[in-house]
Each structure stands twice: as structure tokens, then as C-alpha cells.
Amino acid sequence: MVGEELLRVVDVWKSYGTVVALRGVNMVVRRGEVVALLGDNGAGKSTLIKIISGYLRPDRGQLIFEGKPVRFKSPLDAKALGIEVVHQDLAVILDLPVYRNIFLTHEVTNKLGFLKDDIMKEEAKKALDAIGITMPDVDVKVESLSGGLRQAVAVARATYFAKKLLLMDEPTANLNLVEALEVIDYIRKFVKERNAGVIFVTHNMIHAFAAADRIYFIDKGRILFERRKDELSSPDDLEMLIEKIVEEREKEERYEYQKA
């Protein structure tokens, strides 16, 4: 059941030189819900995720987390509040084994500071099993894995440690259909079990429709619409709505250009 507000993004802007990546973005995520952020490549999705996770700072605007304004100086600030992220580039270290990647920055040690490998291996297997991914051996180096299994390692790491908000930037991009549906199913369970929030970033309308309770569509750095999934009958309905809104915006832009 959807609960209280967890994150509010208020009028967030971000530029890279003369390129404006985000233009006054507003968004809300509540406990117990999956919010899909849908858009094409270059729409601004990854930039927004990096701001929410502390990797970038906005030029203007504000993040409000659990009712309080926050300003992250680094990703560690976001992690301290229970925010974890699966980046599009995965952020895995290829020459480390699977279990060490899952516990990256969260290493389990004894009182003398030595790694407790047996515990990390056992928990790494549990993290992978939870999302329905079969891993041949958690001792193997990540560089030996397929793109889909590397994706699974990043997803398992984030879902294992996320306490309040999970940010997933194209988490199903390199997975086959069965693996993608298993990850989506686990995300739905994760939200309910932990009463957490998820932002599920994707360009795939079918995956967005399957995963989300609410859907935001972003294009050229602007949120063009927000819809609850129960207001849409199918992914095709979502696609037609997007096409209509994009067409209307393009007409407005042509009109403004002609006026100028």
C-alpha cells in the first residue's frame, strides 16, 4: 500500500556548459511505490538519478527527503540516508570477484579489520537468489561474466543495502526477457516488504508498465506528464499518450519559433 511521501524533487535544473540537461523537474516518490521515469536516451533521466544519489549537485532547485531539505555533498551522504543506486554503467570493478562487488563499500570485517569472506559469500548468494538470478560461483571475477550477469550483480548489491529509496538506472537493459521479468517481480516485492520507494529508469514502455505504480515521462529535460498506471489500460495506451503529448509539444515549439 502506498504510504507517506518519501522524496520530493522541486524545480531542479542542471546544465553542462550550454547544454541544459534538466529544466525545472518536479517529482514525488512515496513509500511502498515504484515510480517509472520513462524517456529516450539523452532525455535527462541519468542526470536526475545522479543528483538524487549525490553524484551531481543541481544548479537550482531542491531535494526534500522524508520532509526535510537535503543537499548531498557526495554519494556517501545519500547512502547514509538509505538511498542506493544501480547506475547505467553498473559501477562494478571487473577484477574483483562477484561477492566483493556486492559488498563494495559495505565490506564485512572482524575487530582487527580483516575481511570476513565466508559471510560475504553466503550473503552475496542470498542477494542474487532474492532477485531470481542464478550465478555459477560468487568467487569468479566480474570480468568473466556476461553483460546480463554483471547487471545482476549491480542490482543485487543495491537491493541488498537499500533501506528507504532504490534508484535503478536501466536495470533491465542487458537482461533477457525472463531475467528482466524476474528483476521487475523482485522490485515489486522489495517495495512491499521494506515499505521503500523505487525510481525505475527505463526507455522500455513494456518494462515501465510492468514495474510501476506511477509513470513520469521526461523529454529534453522536462517532465511532460505523470500518470498512475491504473489510468492506463496497456503499454500501447501509454505509447499513444506519449506520441500525442510529444506531437503537441513539437507544434508549440514550431509556433514559438515562427513567432520569434
UniProtKB/TrEMBL annotation:
This is ABC transporter ATP-binding protein. Keywords: ATP-binding, Nucleotide-binding. It comes from the Archaea. Residues 7-245 form the ABC transporter domain. It comes from Vulcanisaeta souniana JCM 11219. GO terms for molecular function: ATP binding. InterPro entries: AAA+_ATPase, ABC_carbohydrate_import_ATPase, ABC_transporter-like_ATP-bd, P-loop_NTPase.
